[in-house]
Write a structure and sequence with these properties.
7 helices; alpha/beta; single chain; 306 residues; elongated; nine-stranded mixed β-sheet
């Protein structure tokens, strides 16, 4: 019988012990990984929802429902045309109207809306655009109303030639004037566009003004320092031209520079521009105590005596 050396037996025993240790370590790693996976799955069920629920706002509010018409009025789209030029995206974020571009006819534009807006900088590069000028002139002459926000240079507005033969006009753009905001404008007469204001001095972002304007114009807002108009309007044919030559409300709103007062001004401007010929009585309660008579028609649609 062959006898193995003692050192060989000891070496084999040590190797077997080492292998056993490796198996135990591997087993421990497997058990640990399974434990982590099971634990993570159990906690996954307690995680919050992947996103927040939708906002409760933004739907059709109750006051937009007309029982007489039995339909919902969608107030998210204003009845306004926006020239696809300049700061048209900024204007859309504020007005949420309908875009249009050339070539287009004045007749089609009038069928779409009584109010057309040229955004800030919308006349840039259109100095020689005869088609745009003719269409805009026909649109206003036939009863449309146009709102023109401030442009880079005043001549961009002047080139539209929205004047009668005996009138003159000169506008100053934002590259030719100094911007200001705090108490930048004021009004010196009562007007529906300024009816929401509580002070004669209005803080709003302005840059530019009208230096020469038609004698038939109604000045709504003036620059506080120069006294020049930054918002006026005048008749042109059957329609009306609203020159907001100092207002860049579209850009200001998109860049968080619009004041609360300016937002109200713009709201009332858009409302007034829908029907500027409509007679609206203005009453100053601070200097008078008038009696207002309102007529209201009531009808009882039930079988019960009212």
């Amino acid at each position: 019988m062959e006898t193995k050396p003692l050192i060989t037996v000891i070496a084999r025993a040590a190797k077997k012990k080492e292998n056993n240790m490796k198996i135990k370590i591997l087993f421990f790693i497997i058990i640990t990984m399974l434990s982590i996976v099971i634990h993570s799955q159990s906690e996954e069920s307690n995680c919050p929802p992947p996103r927040n629920p939708s906002s409760p706002g933004g739907d059709n509010a109750d006051e937009n429902f007309s029982f007489s018409e039995s339909i919902f009025k969608n107030s998210s789209i204003t009845n306004t045309l926006i020239l696809l030029s300049g700061f048209y995206k900024e204007a859309d974020s504020l007005l949420n109207g309908t875009f249009f571009n050339m070539p287009e006819t004045a007749e089609n534009l009038l069928k779409s809306s009584p109010v057309l807006v040229i955004p800030g900088g919308g006349l840039f590069g259109k100095k020689n655009d005869t088609t745009l000028k003719i269409v805009v002139q026909e649109y206003i002459s036939n009863g449309g109303n146009i709102i023109i926000f401030c442009q880079q240079y005043g001549e961009h507005i002047d080139n539209l030639e929205l004047l009668t033969a005996d009138e003159t006009q000169k506008n100053i753009g934002w590259r030719e004037a100094q911007s200001c905001t705090i108490n930048s404008t004021f009004f010196d007469q009562l007007h529906p566009i300024t009816s929401s204001q509580t002070s004669h001095a209005i803080s709003m972002a302005v840059d530019g003004y009208t230096d020469t304007w038609p004698s038939t114009a109604t000045v709504v807002l003036r620059h506080r320092l120069s006294g020049r108009p930054i918002l006026l309007y005048y008749p042109y044919g059957e329609g009306m031209v609203f020159l907001a030559s100092g207002m860049y409300s579209d850009w200001a709103n998109a860049h968080s520079q619009m004041t609360t007062a300016e937002r109200k001004i713009l709201r009332d401007l858009l409302t007034f521009a829908q029907a500027p010929q409509l007679p609206i009585q203005m009453i100053n309660y601070s200097t008078s105590n008038p009696v207002i008579h309102l007529e209201a028609k009531l009808s009882n649609n039930t079988e019960t005596t009212a």
